[in-house]
Amino acid sequence: MNILVVRTDKLGDFITALPAIYILKKYRPHNKIIACVAPLNKELAEACEFIDEVIIDTPQSPLLELVQKIKKHKIDASISFFSNTRIALAQFLAQIKIRIAPATKIAQIFYNRRVKQRRSRAEMAEFEYNIALIKVLFSDIKEHYQQPLLTFDDAKDIYRDFCKKHTIEKELIAFHVGFGGSSDANWTLDEYEVLIGEVVKNKKYQVLLTFGPDEEALYQEMQRRFQNTSVVLYISEDGLIHFAKLIANCKLFISTSTGTYHLASLVGCATMTFFADSLFASAARWKSVGDEKLQHHFMLPSDAKKRAEVFEQVKAALATL
To answer: 89 and 193 in one domain?
Structure first.
């Protein structure tokens, strides 16, 4: 059976689909899993041994081009973890017999197995809603998946070489202070400077500041703030998988609820994560796919006084690491 799985949005969103895809493949290993993803997730999808083939799609690509890509794989069933009208229509035109998706908006008319999911209610986490969709295809499927979900044989070598290059002799605590607009709450750079200082002061760990390849200006600003310190700054220009291998070996990854947080949890790193104090953007919905015991969540209220209280809680937690 050839099964198409679709999640063509951002990094964190795609990672929330990986447990469902893993479970789907392990249930019947002889089935072929074809993932349709956005270009930014191509490298990650190809690194997953439970994904057999990858289709790349962008909203700008001609609809019929996507239809032809899908047809070429002779799909028996599809599961769209997130959908829009274009993606839905492409599957309909490709004449996939079984088309499963959440019953949302106008796109649902092109699916023949629609599932009512009120994800904004956060009755389950995003990845749990995705697992619920695959059970429409195989009702007796088991929900267990390995943790960490993604491992690399050479991750320790990558980390060791990085530490040697940057003269790192202590365990690393990583901070990712930026975000690509995918988070509703974060600390200011001044607040991050204080938090990073708490880790630096106790001298038990070394701090790594990570940046995406498009965050050069942010990198320069943080470099100015931490010049002549032991803090190491790193722009991830060697690809997503190289970055994943590096952070897999960090002691802790600290960030807002953005794609890199999900990536860190995916590869088994402990996380400290900041969420907006709302149900839609909460940890209840966006907790990551890793071991829950390794996830430490803080909700950031909009009220200034309450926010200050949470900030002191985070400071205290970092001071006692």
So the answer is: no
Domain boundaries, position 247: 155-319
CA–CA dist 21, 35 (Å, integer): 9
192 with 246, same domain?
A: yes
* Spatial separation of the C-alpha atoms in residues 3 and 7, rounded to whole Å: 13
Type of residue numbered 253: F
In this prediction, residue 121 carries a pLDDT of 86
Q: How far apart are CA 120 and CA 229, in angstroms?
A: 43
**282 three-class SS:** coil
Alpha-carbon span 288 to 128, nearest angstrom: 10
| pTM of the complete model beyond 0.70 | yes
Whole-number Å distance between alpha carbons of 42 and 37:
7
For every residue of 16-55, DSSP letters joined together read: TTHHHHHHHHHHSTTSEEEEEE-GGGHHHHHH-TT--EEE
SS3 195: helix
- CA dist., res. 2 & res. 5, Å (int): 10
Tokens of 204: 């038990």
Instruction: Give the whole-angstrom CA distance, residue 192 versus residue 234.
Output: 16
- Cβ-based burial of 190 (10 A; exposed 0-12, middle 13-18, buried ≥19): exposed
Same domain, 218 and 127: no
Question: What span, in angstroms and rounded, lies between the C-alpha atoms of 272 and 261?
Answer: 8
pLDDT 10s digits, 69-101: 999 999 999 999 999 999 999 999 999 999 999
Half-sphere exposure in the Cβ direction for 131 (13 Å, CA): 17
pLDDT 10s digits, 41-70: 999 999 999 999 999 999 999 999 999 999
**Residue 259 tokens, joined:** 């794609």
